[in-house]
Write a structure and sequence with these properties.
By secondary structure, this protein is an alpha/beta fold. It contains ten helices and twelve strands. The chain has helices at 34-46, 62-71, 102-115, 135-147, 161-168, 191-197, 237-257, 261-270, 285-292, 301-310; strands at 3-5, 12-14, 16-19, 51-53, 79-84, 86-88, 96-98, 121-126, 151-157, 175-177, 201-204, 275-281. It has an eight-stranded parallel β-barrel, surrounded by five helices. Strands 1-2 form a two-stranded antiparallel sheet. Bound molecules: NADP nicotinamide-adenine-dinucleotide phosphate (NAP). NADP nicotinamide-adenine-dinucleotide phosphate is lined by residues 19-22, 53, 127, 157-158, 177, 205-211, 214, 216, 262, 279-283, 287, 290-291.
Amino acid sequence: MEYRKLGGTDLEISAIGFGAWGIGGAPFWNNEGDAASARALRKALDLGINFFDTAPVYGFGHSETLIGKTLKPVRDKVIYATKCGLRWSQKALKGISHNAKKSSIFEEIEDSLKRMQTDYIDLYQVHWPDSKTPQEETMEALLELQRQGKIRHIGVSNYSVEQMQACLKVGRIVSLQPEYSLVNRSIEKETVPFCRENHIGIIAYSPLASGVLTGKYDKNTRFTDWRGKGIIGTFSGDGYHKIIDRVERLKELAGQAGKTCGQMAINWIVHQPGLTCALLGVKNDKQMEENVQALGWTLGSEQSAEIDRVFAREG
Ligand SMILES: NC(=O)c1ccc[n+]([C@@H]2O[C@H](COP(=O)([O-])OP(=O)(O)OC[C@H]3O[C@@H](n4cnc5c(N)ncnc54)[C@H](OP(=O)(O)O)[C@@H]3O)[C@@H](O)[C@H]2O)c1
């Protein structure tokens, strides 16, 4: 496993991180059950992954609880990243709302610490910007938690450059967690240069485009989980069909290189400038094993150029 320093901090995190959205299960994902999820977590650990990213909203506390329970014996060897800023009034998609107010964050951290069976979170990230709360208030809450020792570092997710600039006026943020993959390269133009200049590590989410870049889906696929609900990403219509055409070409290149399609996509992203870690969601230990084999080799220059051409950034 390769390890990288996160945003100039003392945290050395694995280049592949465990994305724990899927193991939270409903109402977002259908997974293979807690026993398979726990095996996937332990497999990740065995393979050298030390960075585990979750959020309260993933399974409405279930993902955090499962991580806390499974990784408790190795707590001092792993790095926990969780989030704040999304609350729910009922355990359903329609019950979720943004709230990054100080009082709400102070409540959320206590719940996360309890569920994860720990007394500190290594990286605490604002999940989505909350347009109703000034960045100053959110940052002040996070800085207070840092002073109290409940969180070690502050990060943000889904923030624009302007929103990060507003944070930096108040205090230090060490990471951004954006959507980033071969099919969504929108951060490359402004966000990546900004993060590099400001020593903000980039932790990519959905690096396999939530499964599509594994090459196992086609134009006839109808997603029955959150992917069919138009939340993030493109999983239907012309946009989706265009992505599948490109994935077909990636599959051919993977075949020539003796790799899987997903491994090609993971290998590509971990070598992008400014990228600290790619968060991979998995359903079981086999997927984890396959994904980790995406490291330790480099694409040839012709392959890289062809991938860049096929998945050229739009805009
Ligand atoms: N901050 C945010 O707003 C935000 C948003 C989204 C995600 N995230 C983070 O990023 C993590 C990863 O994102 P993600 O789960 O959307 O996407 P991803 O890593 O791009 O894709 C994960 C999905 O791909 C499939 N897959 C993975 N490895 C595979 C393999 N070897 N063979 C076959 N299928 C495989 C599995 O789903 P299927 O088998 O069902 O296809 C898996 O659930 C999340 O867990 C979370 O930690 C954060």
